[in-house]
Every structure is written in C-alpha cells, then in structure tokens.
Design goal:
The chain is mainly beta and 66 residues long. The chain has a domain at 10-47. The chain has one helix and two strands, in the order ββα. The chain has a two-stranded antiparallel ribbon with strand order 1-2. The chain is rod-shaped. The termini are far apart. The relative contact order is 0.28.
Amino acid sequence: MNKAPPIVKKNIIMQVQNVARHYKVSNGLLRGKSTVKALDGASFKLKAGSTLAIVGESGCGKSTLA
C-alpha cells in the first residue's frame, strides 16, 4: 500500500499587506497637481520554495510592486 507523502508546512518568507503607491503628477503650469494610484491595496504571502507571478494589464502597477 502506498502512503501519501507527508505534509510539509512551508515557512512564509515574505508577507505584504495593503501596499499602496500614489504619485503626484503635474496637470500643467496653471492646473496644479493630481494624484495617480499606481498601486492600491495589494496583499500576498510568499512561502519558501514557491513561485509568485505578478500579471496584469500595462500600467496596472506590476513594476511598482516589484
């Protein structure tokens, strides 16, 4: 009879909660500045030996998160 492999609990090596990055951008000389949300509320856990892929549309904050 084959036994199931033992369950190995992997340690969390990185945990991120509610990461946000907002940039102020100029609207022109007389219009002042506005805020652009590059990243808002990103959360994840990365366990030892696992792989995390960040995917999304162009301009959605992948590089900002990295």
